[in-house]
C-alpha cells in the first residue's frame, strides 16, 4: 500500500508542475486557478510522501518520488508543452525509469 501511496505522491508532483506550466501561459483569474491547483497538488504530494516514508526507507522513497515527478514532467513537457524530444532526452528518461524500477526491486 505504501508503494501505491508513493506513486500517487509522484503523480501529484507531476500535476503541480503541470499547473505551474499552465499558470505561466495564462493571465488574470485563470492564472490564479492554476496557481491554486499548484498549491493543492503540492500539499497533497508532500502529505502522501510523508505518509509513504512512515514505512519505506526515506532515501528510496524520495528517489522514487522525484523520479516519477521528473519523468512525468518531462513527458508532459514533450506532449503538452511541445518541448523537444531529442534522442538524448528520451535515452536519459529511459535510464531514469530503469533506475526507479531497480530501486523498487532492491528495496525491502
From TrEMBL:
Primary location recorded for the protein, binned into one broad class: membrane
Subcellular location as annotated: Cell membrane
Keywords noted in UniProt: Cell membrane, Membrane, Transmembrane, Transmembrane helix, Transport
Gene3D superfamilies for this protein: 1.10.3730.20
Database matches in InterPro entries: EmrE-like, Small_drug/metabolite_transptr, Small_multidrug_res
Residue spans crossing the bilayer: 33-50, 62-81, 87-106
Membrane topology value: Multi-pass membrane protein
Pfam families, alphabetized: Multi_Drug_Res
Family (UniProt): Belongs to the drug/metabolite transporter (DMT) superfamily. Small multidrug resistance (SMR) (TC 2.A.7.1) family. Gdx/SugE subfamily.
PANTHER family found in the cross-reference section: GUANIDINIUM EXPORTER, SMR FAMILY PROTON-DEPENDENT DRUG EFFLUX TRANSPORTER SUGE
Official protein name in the record: Guanidinium exporter
